[in-house]
Amino acid sequence: MIPRTKVNYAFADLMRAVWVREQPQYHNRLTTQIKRHLGAGEVILTPSGRGSLYFILQSLPQIRTVVVPAYTCKAVVEAIALADKSVVYAATSLNTFNMEADDLPDTLDRSTAILATHQYGIPCGMQAINRRAKETGALVIEDVAAALGTEIDGQPAGIWGDVSFFSFDSTKLINVPMKGGFIYTRNKTLARSIRQNCEAHTEPMPLSLKLKNLLKGAVFLALENHRLYALFHRLYFSGQNRFTNDQPGLNPNLTEFYRYRFMAWQASIASEQFARLPAIIQQRRTYYRFLHDTLQQYGVPNLPPADEHSQWACIRFPLRISEGKLPFYERAYHAGLDVAFSFTYIATPADTFPEAHQLAHEVVNLPFYTKLTRHEAAETCRITASVLTNSNQSDEPEKHRNHDPQPC
Question: Which of 23, 126, 211, 259 fits a disulfide with 160 by CB distance 3.0 to 4.6 angstroms?
């Protein structure tokens, strides 16, 4: 069974983190690494990606409305609601999974923030969105939760908006138990306000929660064993007739992903991965290209866009299944391939934005992570094509038979 995800840290990282005390050197090292990647600016470490958005909006009293892509994580809508702002949805492309400048409403003004999301690490049109924002006075919040390492015209995603936020969730490029994130801006006044807000409304993580999160991290690592993963899946998913942890509805409470500060032990785990960031980014680009080209050779339809200039660091490989994702998921699972889902339950009105709900109904995420092996990548393509064509053929395309992606 090929797992749907694997995390980027190791058991040794977790063991070291047990003994890390709350000292500034860990945060300082991580923020220095972030600035090395993004350039000079202000960095605020936060409890999570959704927490980052919440604290940004809490620090912008002039903003009353936030424009978001219709196809987006409901945690985004949750954070906006908790910050007491209104949501306006904009159409999302079936091909790029993104909202573009032409999709923005005509009601933009100085009380509006545009949430420019790079869905799955695929960049949206920041130049055009920034032009619209400049014309109307709107503020641009760049959602880079899924796009750390992605570049736009040779420049890193995250430097294009007035303020941006990133995530260290287990599905992202950098993984921390159990979440975490950061905010980046070149606006020192805004950064000061966000930092004050974050410090005033968060508290140190208790030791019991630290140990619980480290234990969860160890479980994630144990499940990298294919046999243990298959047993876990039978007990937790198929045995309970479920396919995802996602639930409908928004949480009206400030959970641990808003309440607890990003701690030194978490910074130590993230920093170890940041030291390998160029190699991680290159591996993602290599495997994205391999999956895309190999599936194209198999004739698989509805592929995500190609990274033609090798500038993306995607955290998912989204594939649209026209018959609907659940039948494919069941057949793929029985063939030895587990797939993940994004945004099964979205908050967007179905009658107004049918394309967003079409994506929620169709999109599966093939195994795509830093620890993906050459064999797993090739098997993922073979099983996917076999399931979609209802064929038992296992031959690989001649072109790729001896040209697996090389390890980084």
Answer: 126
Q: Half-sphere exposure (CA, 13 Å, Cβ side) for 218?
A: 13
- Yes or no: say if 225 and 185 are a contact pair by the CB < 8 Å rule: no
Rg (CA), the chain: 21
Residue with tokens 């499940």: 223
Residues 277, 283, 285, 289, Cα dihedral to 10°: 180
First to last CA, the chain: 24
Instruction: Say which residues have a Cβ less than 8 Å from residue 87's Cβ, sequence separation at least 6.
Output: 65, 66, 68, 77, 80, 81, 347
Where on the phi/psi map is residue 31: left (φ > 0), alpha (ψ -120 to 50), or beta? Answer: alpha
The token pair that represents 62 in the structure block? 């002039």
- The string over 337-356, giving b where at least 16 C-beta atoms fall within 10 Å of a residue's C-beta and e elsewhere, is bbbbbbbbebbbeeeebeeb
**pLDDT per residue over 229-270, tens digit each?**
999 998 988 888 888 888 888 999 999 999 999 999 999 999
Indicate the Cα dihedral angle 248, 250, 255, 261, nearest 10°: 110
Q: Cα–chain-centroid distance for residue 173?
A: 8
- Give Cβ neighbours of residue 209 (< 8 Å, ≥ 6 apart): 256, 260
Tell me the DSSP string of 255-279: -HHHHBPPPHHHHHHHHHHHTTHHH
% helix, strand, coil for the chain, step of 5: 45, 15, 45
Contact 77, 250 (CB under 8 A): yes
Strand-pairing partners, residue 68, are 89
Contact call for residues 284 and 173 (beta carbons, < 8 A):
yes
Single-letter amino acid code for the residue at 249: G
CA atoms within 13 A on the CB side of 277: 19
- Read off the pLDDT of residues 261-308 as tens digits, 9 standing for 90 and up: 999 999 999 999 999 999 999 999 999 999 999 999 999 999 999 999
CA distance 67 to 87: 6
DSSP 119: G
Ramachandran assignment for 65, one of left (phi > 0), alpha (psi -120 to 50 degrees), beta (any other): beta
Structure-token pair, residue 173: 């490029």
CA torsion 128-134-138-139 (nearest 10°) is 80
